[in-house]
Design a protein that fits this description.
Elements: E1 8-12, H1 18-26, E2 30-35, H2 59-65, E3 69-72, H3 78-89, E4 93-96, H4 100-105, H5 110-116, E5 121-126, H6 141-148, E6 154-155, H7 170-191, E7 199-204, H8 205-210, H9 216-223, E8 228-231, E9 233-236, E10 244-246, E11 252-254, H10 262-274, H11 284-291, H12 306-325, H13 328-337, E12 343-344, H14 348-352, H15 355-359, E13 363-368, E14 373-378, H16 402-405
Parallel strand pairs: 1-2, 1-4, 2-3, 4-5, 5-7, 6-8
Antiparallel strand pairs: 8-9, 10-11, 11-12, 13-14
Helix pairs in contact: 1-7, 10-11, 10-12, 11-12
Length: 409
């Protein structure tokens, strides 16, 4: 059995909540996606299978809605509103991202749904929170990323260039992670209640983004300082050493987190010697000092105490020397053996074909009956051996499960 086997989730289709429904479906929940008769807008988002547009051919929709069942309801009609309320009476969770006026019109405010189903966990994922009027205004993932703060810390050393937004719906996905964690917590709470146990969970996308700005928000709140964006590394008040480097095969890698513990300095020094690079690197003496250091380094003393600064800098520069000497993949594997966190900069296609992803079962072949072909999907992003996650069905065709679900008691 999976973690959420036996849990039914009703998801009112919206791009802001799609990833939450997908993750919950992969945890074993029966997620029922409710679309309008014409389908949700995401069915028209590219890219399309074989580059041929079509309401059943959006790879974007396929990805975010795999694992779900789907029905259509025209919620402007009283009959379909009644069908929705009938479904909610049998549900454990409702996930929606509707404007407050629409929620009132559909009588889906928590006070109403709780009377019909005291065990219902109602999750609203909106731009600024359900009670904030700004949540009813037009927005995009980009504008929310900007207002939430992460974009300010993302970009390049050249500040004549504007901040950079991460690819994809990262703002929506961040909020969806908070929604999933909240649902799991609420289900645990409900399990300890003798009656009722439902609750309303109000997810603000902007707030979720703001608490993921690492030090940016806190630096501003505590001391009024502003972090500056840097190429391929964390934003900082003061510029830090560059971390991206081109390897011997011209591919790029992040040199990642330098050694911080004696065992890491020892392994890095051994690697340098194995490659015959010690003589080219006079600073190896500082690596040896790091290998014999007692306890972890006080990183707060970097730039203040000369010895700690020299040892830490030598670790970074040794990684850069090795990276210039070996191919990117060899650099990546060698750092793994040394216990150092680094990463090759892969394209999406290269990342998906990486042996680590394959070994974790990220390649999930699913048969599409409407296309009479098998399509490889990205599998669940987590591994739970005691309660296996799963991806067993493709995204639903429009209204695919109407007959199966709409008459369900």
């Amino acid at each position: 059995m999976s973690v959420l086997t036996g849990i039914r989730i009703i998801e009112l289709a919206h791009e802001r909540t799609a990833f939450a429904g997908k993750l919950l479906a992969e945890l074993g929940a029966d997620v029922i996606l409710i679309e309008p008769p014409e389908g949700t807008a995401a069915r028209h988002y590219p890219p399309f299978v074989d580059d041929v547009p079509g309401i059943e051919r959006s790879l974007h929709f396929w990805h975010y809605n795999a694992g779900k069942r789907g029905i259509t309801l025209d919620l402007t009609r009283s009959g379909d509103q009644t069908r929705l309320r009938t479904l909610l009476a049998t549900a454990d969770v409702l996930i929606e991202s509707e404007p407050s006026e629409r929620i009132r019109a559909l009588r889906l405010n928590f006070e109403t749904t709780a009377k019909a189903n005291p065990r219902l966990i109602h999750v609203a994922v909106t731009p600024y929170g359900r009670k904030e009027p700004l949540s009813n205004l037009a927005e995009t993932d980009l504008t929310l990323m900007a207002s939430g703060g992460p974009v300010w810390s993302c970009g390049y050393d050249d500040h004549s260039l504007p901040p950079s937004r991460g690819w994809g719906f990262q703002g929506y996905q961040t909020a969806c992670h908070f929604a999933v964690m909240s649902v799991l917590t609420a289900l645990l709470y409900r399990g300890n209640q003798t009656s009722g146990g439902g609750q309303f969970i109000d997810i603000s996308i902007t707030a979720a983004l703001n608490v993921t700005t690492e030090g940016a928000s806190y630096n501003w709140l505590v001391e009024g300082s502003t972090l500056q964006r840097q190429t391929g590394r964390h934003a900082s008040i003061r510029p830090t050493g560059e971390t991206q480097i081109q390897c011997a095969d011209q591919r790029w890698a992040n040199t990642g987190v330098p050694p911080r513990f004696p065992v890491e300095f020892a392994r890095l020094l051994d690697w340098l010697r194995t490659l015959g690079l010690e003589e080219e690197f006079p600073e190896a003496v500082f690596l040896e000092m790091g290998a014999n250091w007692e306890g972890p380094f006080d990183l707060s003393r970097i730039g203040i105490e000369d010895t700690i600064t020299a040892v830490f800098t030598a670790g970074r520069e040794a990684l850069q020397l090795i990276a210039r000497t070996v191919p990117a993949q060899s650099f990546f594997e060698g750092c793994q053996q040394a216990g150092l966190a680094v990463g090759v900069i892969n394209s999406p296609e290269e990342a998906f074909e990486d042996i680590h992803f394959k070994a974790r079962g990220m390649h999930v072949p699913l048969y599409r009956a409407d296309l009479d072909r098998t399509v490889v999907h990205p599998g669940p992003p987590f591994s739970l051996p005691a309660a296996p996650s799963r991806l067993t069905r493709t995204a639903p065709r429009l209204g695919e499960h109407n007959a199966e679900i709409r008459g369900m008691p």
